[in-house]
From TrEMBL:
Membrane-spanning intervals of the chain: 37-61, 107-127
GO molecular function: acetyl-CoA transmembrane transporter activity
A GO BP annotation: acetyl-CoA transmembrane transport
Name of the protein this chain belongs to: Acetyl-coenzyme A transporter 1
Organism phylogeny: Eukaryota, Metazoa, Spiralia, Lophotrochozoa, Platyhelminthes
Localization, UniProt: Membrane
Membrane topology recorded in Swiss-Prot or TrEMBL: Multi-pass membrane protein
Amino acid sequence: GNAAYVFALADREGKRGPALAVRMLIPRGVREDLGPLAIIFFLYLLQGIPSGISSALPLILQSDARSADYTLQAAFSLSCWPYSLKLLWTPVVDAVFSVRFGRRRSWLLPLQLGIGVSFWVFAGRLDGWLGRSPGQRWGALATRHEIMVWPLTMTWLLITALVATHETIVDGLSISLLSKRNVALAGTCKSLGQSCGYILAYVAFLVLESPESSNAYIRQIPVPGQGIISFAGNSGELGLVC
């Protein structure tokens, strides 16, 4: 098809072939905004990570016989409300900003730092809230005490509120960064970025956290009772990324 023709044509250019092929496959108008598109995609990918963890948490809460009952899981679902309620504080975020840094950048860095610090706090307290014994990152839940779902929910509510506000800022930033002809691509970046972040933090995390799947499909030498990553450890690492 067209792609085969482009690569065949590019081969005639010798060493410049691969680079030329990529340039010919990407429309000229899009090439002008590749940098901003990459930034926007990455910011949306970071937003998808908390969404993936939010979906993984209920599975962790019901992972063994001492897991949280449906009442506690319903309480944790309250942490998703900021996505629906962000309309209440979005006008304030849009109106209050530093002229020096601009309307979007005034909020972007503080929100990014807030999300990262919140993840660090979450990672440090998580095993205690789940009632696991000290040092037992893959151990049974509620062995020391009952699962403390309300501190878990309140912390995650804060993270979700920060992420929901961050989404609003990036939506506006994408319009500012992209040229008029490429503004429509912001929606594509949002869909792809958030989906990739969600898959990374949900599907990939559950596979790597599970001792059973890690030992059966990934490790050459099984380590009984341990996955490749732990929930708390993974959350701390994500705090560095976010």
